[in-house]
């Protein structure tokens, strides 16, 4: 008996609001407003931290139903790309925690029933038990503030719905704005809504009046681009509003509706329609990049219902198919394309010191994923493997999705430097690369000898010291706070070992004219292990260029900014002195606080120094 595969259907995100999804699926059913209540979104907004990358205006209006709240992780760069507000400049002030607040105002003041806060980040970190708090204040139409209380933020309870309890012994007030005061800068807000009751009259509850029972009727409905059917025809209480073909319902006030709904029933409650709706022309918006990859779109007639856009393929992609036209459909989506852009690679590049092996790689028109293989010439190996064992002789290049070939090259094998005692006595035709010839130039030309770098990375033979050179080096002078230990003597080939007189210092090689006092923080000097007496009867490296600088403390990357380590020689303390390279985004000084240069963010690669990094990249000496 043949097995039949199981079929599963995922209701979440299918665009259809099932009965069991109401109240739980924002994506399919929109934002739920309980019967008898009205929700309105923030109309204006301001915040404690304003920046072009994260303006407070992002919380205005209804949030996108696809946005999700995140815990355990906070990335300022992701927030910038997110439709949410956060105090994204707070991390630049690393020495104190400024107050963080967000104030939103609403177009129609009303007696608040609830305040609803939609979060993008709740500010919680790995292993942290303490949750961040928000303190909520209601602002009435007279400017007076009313404290609601403090509440925990959690993605598990998003949105945060705070119900408002009114004091019945005092007159009711109408809320026009809400201020949110946060206990942490590591939070992000998507939207804020004010919920009011449709059956609540602030005027009636602040005074007494004698009235006769009467039926309150609603004003006649007037919705452009729609047909309206009411029952009964006279003194109607319920009306159906159906948008004309090509238009979609938009809720201006009241309970939200699923996207692209064309019809809705309105009810008259206490003289007010439970929703205010309008019919807007369907707008598909610009076609997304994913609709046709490697294409550019042109929509000169707009992007509304039945309008068309055309697309053209970006070089080197080629159009495959006949029609390059898209149509905006009734569901707000663009029609499926009847053509696509195929990316092909041109002929593979010519690689220096290598031979193309695969015959079909000659010429152009290669599909993405095509592999072309090269063999490196003798003495050459695939770059990045030259100094490895085993070295690779065959280079593989792949045609990438962008229509370009993967980069690669063949580099010559390199032989090791001749022993230090021959420094300054030889010349080479091509450094120490394959096939180079190095000639030892002795005082007696009859003793000159040459060696060649073979394809296996070894010299054909070893240099032999010139026989007619006699004498030894003078003892190295103890300059620049450096002393030398010369247990091997001062003969040619003997080594002396430098040691710094000052404790916790390293002997390093500096350029002529430089000293430990003038050394810039972005320079990385080489640490000197020994100096050798050469056949020129000189010490190499030159002891006059060896200075002592302070050693690095073994605490890089521990979360504390050690000023001693805040330099390129110590890898800028493992990123501890820049907010952007710390997971907490807050610099903590080790020891007393300071405002000197060595306490600032110096790392040229850090986000704070992007503009100056080009001139201060670490330089090895």
Automatic annotation (TrEMBL):
It comes from the Eukaryota. It comes from Danionella cerebrum. Keywords: Disulfide bond, Glycoprotein, Repeat, Sushi. Residues 282-343, 413-468 form the Sushi domain. The keyword ATP-binding does not apply. This is Sushi domain-containing protein. GO terms for molecular function: metalloendopeptidase activity. The lineage of its organism: Eukaryota, Metazoa, Chordata, Craniata, Vertebrata. GO terms for cellular component: extracellular space. One of its GO terms (biological process) is proteolysis. Signal peptide: none annotated. The keyword Amino-acid biosynthesis does not apply. It holds the Pfam family Sushi.
